[in-house]
Design a protein that fits this description.
395 residues, alpha/beta, Rossmann fold, Dehydroquinate synthase-like, alpha domain, 2 domains, six-stranded parallel beta sheet, two-stranded antiparallel ribbon, 45% helix, 12% strand, binds fe (ii) ion
Length: 395
């Protein structure tokens, strides 16, 4: 494996009803909190009332910022950072799924950021003008969905509503949350579709690491491969149990911790961190508002099919053989069957994509995610025409 530096300072409180500790946890970081959540919080009003009470009990004043949507926008986090400055906020709480937690991080950094917040993100990998943040207010995360792993990562994804580009900031020096409160009881009321999309997002995070493992220079991937396959298997086997019994807290807990493990660096340190399927999925979310996990379902199916017959598709065939004991094409069909059983889209036409838009989509991936060498980072590297072919295969 490659040399690496590993750092993950996030304190995790895991267990049923752990969210009741939000008051004393937050009080460690200040007296004024910004509570960030969705524009529509009607589905967890009781939880919010409880959080308000717990914060007040521990002497923390709370300002609500309920203005985040799925695929959150730059204008939403800009406004949140303004509220932080105006209200002299000490600590930011993210209550929700990946969109909310990503926004909470960016708002916390934006409150102290001296530049326009558009500069914070890597909106082009070939002409880099990004100015990463160097400091942020402390954040506390309470995920209500197992999926993105944002609660234990220094990454946030935002869409610029002006350019239509969706991209990310990754900054370990200041974007790690201080505390992640993982309370599986908060996920039991999630609709099945959101639960499944979250689970497939977890699988996609791990499978991207597996697909992009580099065997070309004798790297020993035995440790990574076995850890990655184990996490994927745990999610694969747990999801049907959760779909059958949404109140199964043990199974909900497995998904929740798997989401954190998938992106907290354990499975990827010492390997490439390429996420090419995510780059293609982001374009679908930015242009069609497609749910993140669903875009990845379409991508995983297409990628397994596409690389099965290719000389450079060894990692894809290896995954299929190790995980299912079948060919990559057959593994693709098994993925598709499971995804459809869970009610998740498996073809991008289901998001509204038309055949005559495929070229434009390929150009969008190129403009945001291609490096200066003219390729999308992956093993093997992906050309613009291959992006087009992959989208077409997923249509
Ligand atoms: Fe993801």
């Amino acid at each position: 494996m490659f040399d690496f530096e590993y750092y993950n300072p996030v304190k995790v409180l895991f267990g049923a009803n752990k969210s009741s500790e939000i008051g004393n946890v937050t009080a460690n970081y200040g007296k004024r909190a910004l509570l960030v959540s969705y524009a529509d919080v009607s589905f967890f009003e009781d939880l919010i009332s409880d959080i308000h009470r717990k914060l007040a009990t521990h002497g923390v004043a709370c300002v609500d910022y309920f203005n985040i949507t799925a695929n959150p926008l730059l204008c939403q986090v800009r406004k949140g950072a303004e509220v932080c400055r105006k209200e002299k906020i000490d600590v930011v709480i993210g209550l929700g799924g990946g969109s909310v937690m990503d926004s909470a991080k960016v708002i916390a950094a934006g409150a102290l950021y001296p530049h326009d917040m558009e500069k914070m993100f890597l909106f082009s990998h070939s002409h880099i003008t990004q100015i990463p943040p160097t400091e942020a207010l402390p954040t506390v995360m309470i995920p209500t969905l197992a999926g993105t792993g944002s609660e234990m990562s220094p990454t946030a994804v935002i869409t610029d509503e002006t350019s239509g580009k969706k991209s990310y900031v990754w900054e370990p020096s200041c974007l790690y949350p201080k505390v992640a409160i993982l309370d599986p009881t908060l996920t039991v009321s999630l609709p099945p579709y959101q639960t499944a999309c979250g689970a497939f997002d977890i699988i996609a995070h791990v499978i991207e690491a597996y697909f992009n493992g580099d065997e070309s220079n004798g790297n020993d991937l035995a440790l990574h491969d076995s850890m990655q396959l184990s996490v994927i298997r745990a999610v694969w086997e747990t999801l049907p149990r959760v779909m059958e019994d949404p109140n199964n807290l043990q199974a909900r807990g497995v998904l929740m911790w798997a989401a954190s493990i998938a992106l907290n660096g354990w499975l990827t340190s010492g390997t490439f961190g390429f996420t090419p399927m995510h780059q293609m999925g982001h374009v679908l979310s930015a242009k069609y508002g497609a749910t993140h996990g669903a875009t990845l379902c379409c991508m995983m199916i297409a990628w397994l099919k596409y690389f099965d017959g290719r000389e450079d598709g060894g990692r894809y065939r290896k995954f299929a053989k190790e995980f299912f004991g079948v060919s990559a094409t057959e593994a693709s069909a098994m993925f598709e069957k499971r995804m459809r059983e869970c009610g998740v889209q498996t073809q991008i036409r289901e998001f509204g994509v038309r055949d005559d838009e495929i070229e434009e989509l390929a150009d969008m991936v190129k403009s945001v995610s291609f490096g200066a060498d003219g390729y999308l980072n992956a093993v093997p590297k992906i050309s613009r025409d291959q992006i087009r072919d992959l989208y077409r295969l997923s249509l």
